[in-house]
Amino acid sequence: MNPNPTATLASASADTLLVPFWAEVVAVRQETPNVATLTLRLEDADARRRYRFKPGQFNMLSLPGLGEAAISISSDPAERDTLQHTVRAVGNVSRALTRLKPGARVGLRGPFGTAWPVEGCRCRDLILVTGGIGLAPLRPVIYEIINHRADFGDVTLLYGARTPADLLYTDEYAAWEAHDIRVLLTVDRAEADWQGTVGVVPILFYRLRPHPERTVVFSCGPEIMMHFVVYEAMARRIPYEHIYLSLERNMKCGQGLCGHCQVGPYFVCRDGPVFRFDALAPFFGVEGL
Amino acid sequence: MNERTLTADVVVALPKLHLDDLLAALRQRGYQTHGPRLRDGVVAYGPIEGLKDLPRGVVVHQDAGRYRAEQTDHPLYFAATPGADSWKRYLFPPRRELFHFHRRNGRWETAAPAAEAPRYALIGVRPCELAALAVQDAVFLREDFTDPHYHAVRERLFIVAVNCLHPGDTCFCASLGTGPEAASGYDLLLTELDDVFLVAVGSEAGREVLQPLPWEPATAFWLSQAQRGLEHARQAMGRRLPDPQSLPETLLSNLNHPAWDEVASRCLSCANCTQVCPTCFCWDVQDEIALDGETVTRFRVWDSCFSPQLSYLAGGNARTTVRARYRQWVTHKFASWERQFGTLGCVGCGRCITWCPAGIDITETLAAVRNTPQPAGGER
Questions:
Q1: Would you tell me how many other CB atoms lie within 10 Å of the CB of residue A44?
Q2: d(Cα B307, Cα B311) in Å, to the nearest integer?
Q3: At residue B379, does pLDDT exceed 50?
Q4: Is the pLDDT of residue B374 over 80?
Q5: pLDDT for A118-175, tens place per residue?
Q6: CB within 10 Å: which end of chain B, N or C, has fewer?
Q7: Are residues B27 and B148 located together in one domain of the fold?
Q8: Do the domain assignments include residue B4?
Q9: Phi, psi at residue A59, to the nearest 5°?
Q10: Are strands A155-161 and A58-63 parallel, antiparallel or unpaired?
C-alpha cells in the first residue's frame, strides 16, 4: 500500500549513524512572521544526483550544537537541483532554521517515510485538506498534479490558518487555480478586510459534493482537525481506504530505530508519516497513545 | 592438551578450576572477558579474570522493589541473579558518540570516531539474557537497516552462557519460553553443578576454545542432575505470566482499561524499569558543545518512554500523563513489539519488578487487564 523507499542519504557511510550531508541555503523566503521557506542545495554533486523524494516525505535537518528536526519537503519533486523546506519556528532547531541566511549550511539526511499515493490517484478526484504548516507536505502533491494535470479529476484544496497573515504561499494560489485546482480558504480569526470564510477547516466540506467512489482525501494538520476531516469524509461515504493522513511525532533517527515516534504498532518515521486511514483507525484519537 | 576430539553435539564436563583456563584462552584470542561480580551489594557485570572474581556463594533475594545479596558458603559461582545491570550496555552503550562536528575556518565539518569495536567475551549469560540479545538483534539488525555500532560489537562477541538453575523471586522466563534452559545463541553453554561445569558447544569458535582444555565425558549422573536442576528451576520461578501469546490482542483492545489508571496512581514515571530492561531500545540524540565552541559532539543516549520529552511535539506533547506513558511501555513490550519485530519485547527477567521503587509488578498489571477485559475499549 504505502511505498517505503529506503532513504538515499540516511548517513554519510554504512558504518556511521546519523552523520548528515551538507546543504547550502541558497534562498530564504519569509512566508509569515514565524514561517520561512529555505531553498537548499546539496553540496556534494554525487549526493545531489542520487537524491530524490516523493511528495509527503521528510528530511532530518541538522544544526551543530542545536540538534536535528524532522521537516517535510515542500518543493516540486521534479526539481532535482534544489529542494525546499517550509519551517515554522517552534523549538530550538526550527527557530534557528528560520533565522538562517543564504550561504549558511545545514546538515541534511533523508528522504524518510512514506509518500502520498499520488501515482495511485490518477483519474480520481482529490480533496487536499490542511491547516497551518500542514500545507507544506502537500505542496509537492500540488506540483505533481500540475505537472500531470490531465491525469487527475477534480482537485480541491481546503486550507485554513489562524489568521489571513498566517496563510502560506499566498502568491501561488492564482497559479494553482489557473491549473484548475480549486482553492477554498478559511481562517479562525479575521479583520474587516477578509472576504473569505471564517471557521475551522472541516466546514469547507459543506461547499463540496464529492463522489465517494472516485474521491480520495489527503489531509495533514493538527490531529483534532484531521479527526473532523475523517468525520466529514465518512459523512460523505468516502471509505477509510480513500483517506490518507500525515502524522507528526517527535523523531530522532528517521529510520524506526530511536523509538520516539511510535503510535500503536507503527513507527511514524518509517510506517508513516502518511498512513491510509484504515490502518490507523484503531489507534487514531486514543488519548495519549 | 586433551587427547579426545570434541564434537559439537556432546555435553562434556569441565572441572570448575579450569574455567580460569577457558577465560585465559579467550583473552589470548583477543577477547576482554566480562562476567558477573559483586559490586556495591549487587551482582553487576564487569571485567573478570577468573573464578576469583565471580560472586561465589552469593544468594540473591528479590521481590517487587527489593534486591538483597547475601554471602553464604555454598560453592556455586553462577547462582546469584544479576541486579539492575544487563549485557545490553555492552552492545548498546548508555551513551555513545555517533560523530562530531568541528569548525575549520568558519565551516563546520563532520568526523566519525575511529574507535575499533571491542571484542567482548561475555561469561555467564543467562538464558533470559540470551533471549534479550536475540530480541535486540531483531531491533538493531533489521533486514532494511543495520545499526553499524551495534553490529560491530555483535559480530565480535563470544558468549559463554549459563543455564539458570537458581531463578530469582521476580523471574518469569518459564512462562515466556526464554529460560531457564538456553536453546541457542551461545558459543559455549555451562550448567553449573556442585562439582563440575557441564559444557555444551554452540559454535565452531566455542569448540575450538574448549578442545584443548581438560574436559571429560559427562557422566549420566551429572546429566540427570542438570535435568533435575532445570526442572526444579522451572517450578521455582517467583512469578508467572500465563498465555503470553494472547497479550497483543488483549492489550490493544483494552487501551482504556481502568487498570492503566490504577497503575498510574502508583507509578512515579522514574524510568527505572526501562533503564534496567535488557530489551528497551529507545534513545535520544544530544549535542555537547565544547567550551571553545569549535567542536560539537553528537551522542546517542538511552531514553525512556517515561520521559515527557520523548514525545515532545510542536503541537503539544503526545503523552502528557503517567497513564499514557506507562501504557505505552506495557503495550509496546507485550503488543506492538510483536507487530514490529515478530517477538514480544519481554523475556521475563523480572528486573522491572525488582527495581521499581514503587514495587509495581508487570505480571499483576497484565493479569488485571486480562482478567477484566473491556471489549469496547479499543476505540475511544
A1: 14
A2: 8
A3: no
A4: no
A5: 999 999 999 999 999 999 999 999 999 999 999 999 999 999 999 999 999 999 999 9
A6: N
A7: yes
A8: no
A9: -115, 160
A10: unpaired
Which residues contact residue B290 at a Cβ distance below 8 angstroms, ignoring those fewer than 6 apart? B296, B297
Residues A100 and A159 in one domain: no
Domain hosting A54: range is 21-112
pLDDT in tens, A186-218: 999 998 999 889 999 999 999 999 999 999 999
Q: Are residues A173 and A219 in the same domain?
A: yes
Number of domains in chain B: 2
pLDDT tens digits for range A107-116: 999 999 999 9
* A59 in a structural domain: yes
> In terms of domains, do A151 and A179 share one?
yes
Task: Tell me whether residue A170 is in a domain.
Answer: yes
pLDDT exceeds 50 at position A1: no
Cell of A247: 502524522
In a domain, B378, yes or no: no
Q: Which long-range contacts (CB under 8 A, 24 or more apart) does A229-234 make?
A: A229/A129, A229/A201, A229/A202, A229/A205, A230/A277, A230/A284, A231/A202, A232/A202, A232/A205, A233/A127, A233/A205
Chain A residues within 8 A of B256 when measuring between CB atoms: 286
What's the predicted TM-score (pTM) here?
0.94
| Listed residue (A284, A278, A262) closest to A217, CA to CA | A278
Instruction: Pick the range with the lowest mean pLDDT from A140-144, B112-116, B193-197, B361-365.
Output: B112-116
Over residues B96-147, the pLDDT tens digits come to 999 999 999 989 999 988 778 999 999 999 999 999 999 999 999 998 888 9
Which of A:231-250 have CB within 8 Å of B? 248-250
Residues in chain B closer than 8 A to A67 (CB atoms): 285-287
What CA–CA distance (Å, rounded) separates B315 from A75? Answer: 23
How many structural domains is chain A composed of? 2
- Indicate which CATH number applies to the domain containing A59: 2.40.30.10
Pairing mode of beta strands B158-162, A215-220: unpaired
Give me the domain span that covers residue B221: 11-235
C-beta of residue B126 within 8 angstroms of C-beta of residue B179? yes
Cβ-based contacts of A134 with chain B (< 8 Å)? none
Q: Is A273 contained in some domain?
A: no
Q: Tally the residues of chain B.
A: 380
Considering the domain architecture, whether residues A237 and A140 belong to the same structural domain is answered as yes
The Cα of B135 is separated from the nearest Cα of chain A by a number of Å equal to 13
pLDDT at A3 over 60: no
A108 plus A182 within the same structural domain: no
Domain boundary among B182, B214, B235: B235
Contact A282 B378 (CB under 8 A): yes
Tell me the longest C-alpha to C-alpha distance in chain B.
74
Q: Are residues A41 and A144 in the same domain?
A: no
**Radius of gyration of chain B measured on its C-alpha atoms:** 22
In a domain, B131, yes or no: yes
- Judge if A211 and A179 occupy the same domain: yes
pLDDT at A287: 82
Neighbours of B188 (CB within 10 A): 25
The continuous run of DSSP H or E covering B324 comes out as helix B322-331
Nearest to A250 among B110, B300, B313 (CB): B313
B375 neighbors B257 (Cβ within 8 angstroms) = no
CATH of the domain at A159: 3.40.50.80
pLDDT in tens, A81-113: 999 999 999 999 999 999 999 999 999 999 999
B273 and B350, same domain (yes or no): yes
Pick from B125, B119, B56: nearest CA to B87: B125
Look at B101 and A258 and tell me if their CB atoms are within 8 Å.
no
Average pLDDT score over chain A: 95
